[in-house]
Amino acid sequence: MLDKAKELLQEAEEFVSDIADEVDEFRIKYLSKKGGLITELFKDFKNVPNEQKKEFGQVLNELKNKVLDKVNFLNEKIKSKDTVKIGLDLTLSGDAKDFGSRHPISIVRNEIIEIFTRLGFTISEGPEIEDDLHVFSALNFPPEHPARDMQDTFFIEKNPDILLRTHTSSVQVRVMDNQKPPIRTISPGRVFRNEAISARAHCIFHQIEGLYIDKNVSFADLKQTLEYFAKELFGQNSKIRLRPSYFPFTEPSAEVDVSCSLCGGKGCNVCKYTGWLEILGCGMVDPNVLEANNIDSNKYTGFAFGMGIERITMLKYGIKDLRLFFENDLRFLKQFQ
Ligand code: DAH
Q: pTM for the complete prediction?
C-alpha cells in the first residue's frame, strides 16, 4: 500500500502537459471524490499495518498537495500562454503602424496647383452647394440649356434653384464678385452630375478651373500657358493642339489635346490610335460673362480653362476604370506613394 502511494507520488511529480483537457483529466484521476486514486487510498487507510500508518498518512497528504499544486501550476501556465496568443502581453513591443499614402487624385491635384502657382496663379475655392446664378446664369447659359436639366444637375430646391455645382466654373463668378482685375486664379474642387456610374463616368468627380483677366490678355497667352502646363505635367516632349469647340461662357472656345505620353504620339489603344488625348476645355471669357459680373469688357479680356482631375490622373498613370478612385481599396491606393 505504502509502495503504491510512493509510486503515485513519483508519477504525479513527473506529470507535465500544456493542454487544459489533459490537466483536468489528471486532476480527476487523482482527486475525484468518486473513484479518484487518492480518495481510494484514503479508504484503504484502515488496512494499513499500524506501524506504517504514520508514514502512509504523510505520503498521502504529500501526494494530495503535490497534485493540487501541479494542477494549479499547469493551469496558470496554460492561461498565460492563451493571453499572449490573443495579444494582451503588455511587455511585447508595439506593432509598427503603416503610414498611409496620398490619394492619386490629391497627388495630381497638388501637382497641377504647383505648376500654376509657379505662373503666379492664386487658389480660390467656392461652395459645393450653389445657386443657379453662379453655376449657370452668370456664365451665360441660356435658360433652355440642357446642362440645367434635371438629368444632369442634382437639385436640392427648386424656385429659387439650389443645386450641387456641376462644374468649378461657378468659382469664376464668385472670384469676379469679390476681386477687381487683374485676376489670375485656379479653383480646384469637387463637382456633381446626375450620371450613371461606369468605368468612364461618376456622379462625383474633381475639376480645376483657371481664370485670367487683365488688359490685353490674348488667345496666344492662353495657348502659351496651356503648353507650359502640359509640358510640365506630361513631360517636356509633349505637344498640344487646340480644336474649335463651344462653351456658353467662352468665345471663341477650344478643346485641348496633349500628345499621348504612353506611345509618344505614334498611336496606341489608350489614345485610340490617334496619338492625341483630350485633357481640357478652354476659351476667351465671353464678354457677356464679364459684363454680367461687372467687369468692363471694353477694358479687359481674359481666358478660362477647366479640366477633370480624374481624367488627367487616368491618362498620367494609365488607369482604365474611374471607379477605382472612389472604392478606397488599399491595394490600389498604396501604389501611389
Ligand atoms: N466647365 C466646363 C465643364 O465642366 C469645363 C470648362 C470648359 C471650363 C471651358 C472653362 C472653359 O473655364 O473655358 O465641362
A: 0.73
